[in-house]
């Protein structure tokens, strides 16, 4: 259908498209004007309720677009994408609200042609060279962003761990990198770093590979054994020792399990089963003694508990037992037997002589233990018998495997009377030590006799002034001073 001429003129005049003419405004000003109109039309699409400051435009990372931290993160991300396979960012739906940034640029400012702090036209931003170079100027070499991308070598990682900085070991995936990490940590001589690396290797390597590599690195092996011991990972520790062929260590580790057994009969049976383990000769003797001692303690405890309840044994009535003898050390058991069963024959389990012979207790150790037990009971006759010995002519004399000055200390701690102390103070060999002990325990006769033997008249005169006037000690000193047969040295 053909339009009439007036209709055609209305069409061309009302259409938004104009016919080409040489008179149209095709200068630079008109093109810029159209560009501004296009931007303003986009601006209306972007704005919501004409409130440009209520909504913050953010990137995937949650930082305002155009800010410094956003540019740094984008730079690091682009560098990572060039080295690794591309991956989409992980979006956390629970990400909290992003705080407002103080940057003067945002996505809305690029569309609207103005900043938050002031306004400028879009055409002005096109001509501003500083704006156009803003993002490229922040892109620095990759080496300056290692703290962000965690791109450290094993040596650098160990160095950062020594400094207490946070690192991630997950990037070391190959066996070579993991072993380099372990070797550098050993070279750093830092136990905490070595342990941290070992924990990572324990989690990421098979047991066979880990045990094989630790065998050639004794420092790391010791740290790993200590770590497993502290964390009580008995199963893995046993597997490690078995792989290394350390049978004695395996036996000792199994032996230590007796500590967790509360019932004494079950513990005794467990110790009996340990006798067949491959211990060293010294450790084997120790385990045998432990089993024998516990077996004997069970018998003594049952007998004494029954006697104590019966109320017919005098010593249990005068000195009730304060604790059970079960699981006590050997010397404590010997002291107990010397206290409650001193006079029993050697054929009984509770006899002190039987305990001494069975467990090969030395003469000195037996003497000290028996002396302390009998002195505690104030059994001074038994104490005196410990020192009495006879020679082949039948003469008796006092002999001690322990220095008599230590004997005096033991007796004094058990509140021995002065007469008993005086007898043993006089047996101390050193004269000065004997005088010192005699002064401490007020043994006047010992001091007077020692000065007499030393023929020291001046010391004797001085000591006369320290005793009571008219006392037996003063009269004895006067008799010695008046004795013409004594040839004094001074």
Automatic annotation (TrEMBL):
Q: Please give the residue ranges the record annotates as the region Disordered.
A: 74-96
A GO biological process held by the record: intracellular protein transport
* Database matches in InterPro entries: Spe-39 (IPR040057)
Q: Subcellular location, in the record's words?
A: Cytoplasmic vesicle; Early endosome; Late endosome
UniProt entry keywords in alphabetical sequence: Cytoplasmic vesicle, Endosome
Asked whether the UniProt record includes Cell membrane among its keywords, one would answer no
Gene Ontology cellular component list:
early endosome; late endosome
Q: Which domain of life is it from?
A: Eukaryota
| Stated name of the protein | Spermatogenesis-defective protein 39 homolog
Report the source organism: Lates calcarifer (Barramundi)
């Amino acid at each position: 259908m053909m339009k009439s001429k007036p209709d055609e003129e209305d069409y061309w005049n009302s259409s938004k498209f104009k016919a080409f003419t040489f008179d149209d405004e095709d200068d630079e000003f008109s093109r810029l004007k159209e560009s501004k109109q296009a931007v303003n039309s986009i601006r209306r699409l972007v704005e919501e309720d004409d409130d440009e400051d209520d909504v913050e435009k953010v990137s995937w990372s949650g930082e305002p677009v155009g800010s410094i931290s956003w540019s740094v993160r984008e730079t690091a991300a682009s560098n990572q994408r060039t080295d690794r396979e591309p991956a989409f960012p992980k979006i956390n739906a629970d990400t909290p609200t992003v705080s407002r940034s103080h940057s003067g640029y945002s996505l809305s400012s690029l569309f609207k042609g103005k900043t938050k702090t002031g306004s400028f036209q879009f055409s002005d931003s096109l001509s501003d060279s500083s704006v156009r170079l803003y993002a490229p100027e922040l892109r620095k070499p990759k080496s300056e962003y290692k703290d962000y991308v965690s791109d450290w070598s094993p040596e650098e990682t160990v160095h950062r761990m020594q400094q207490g900085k946070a690192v991630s070991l997950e990037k070391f995936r190959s066996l070579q990198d993991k072993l380099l990490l372990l070797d550098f940590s050993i070279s750093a001589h830092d136990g905490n770093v070595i342990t941290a690396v070992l924990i990572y290797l324990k989690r990421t390597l098979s047991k066979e590979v880990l045990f094989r590599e630790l065998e050639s690195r004794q420092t790391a092996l010791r740290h790993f054994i200590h770590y497993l011991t502290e964390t009580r990972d008995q199963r893995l520790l046993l597997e490690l020792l078995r792989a290394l062929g350390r049978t004695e260590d395996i036996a000792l580790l199994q032996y230590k399990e007796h500590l967790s057994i509360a019932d004494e009969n079950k513990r005794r049976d467990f110790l009996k089963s340990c006798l067949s383990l491959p211990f060293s000769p010294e450790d084997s003797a120790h385990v045998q003694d432990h089993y024998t001692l516990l077996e004997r303690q069970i018998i003594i405890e049952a007998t004494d508990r029954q006697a104590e309840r019966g109320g017919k044994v005098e010593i249990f009535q005068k000195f009730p037992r304060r604790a059970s003898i079960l699981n006590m050390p050997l010397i404590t058991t010997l002291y107990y037997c010397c206290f409650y069963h001193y006079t029993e024959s050697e054929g009984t389990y509770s006899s002190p002589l039987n305990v001494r012979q069975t467990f090969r207790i030395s003469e000195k150790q037996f003497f000290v233990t028996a002396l302390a037990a009998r002195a505690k009971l104030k059994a001074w006759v038994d104490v005196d018998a410990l020192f009495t010995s006879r020679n082949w002519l039948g003469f008796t004399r006092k002999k001690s495997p322990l220095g008599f000055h230590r004997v005096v200390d033991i007796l004094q701690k058990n509140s021995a009377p002065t007469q008993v102390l005086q007898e043993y103070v006089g047996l101390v060999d050193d004269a000065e030590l004997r005088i010192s002990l005699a002064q401490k325990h007020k043994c006047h006769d010992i001091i007077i006799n020692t000065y007499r033997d030393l023929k020291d008249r001046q010391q004797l005169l001085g000591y006369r002034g320290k005793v009571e006037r008219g006392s037996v000690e003063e009269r004895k000193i006067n008799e010695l001073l008046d004795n013409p047969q004594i040839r004094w040295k001074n």
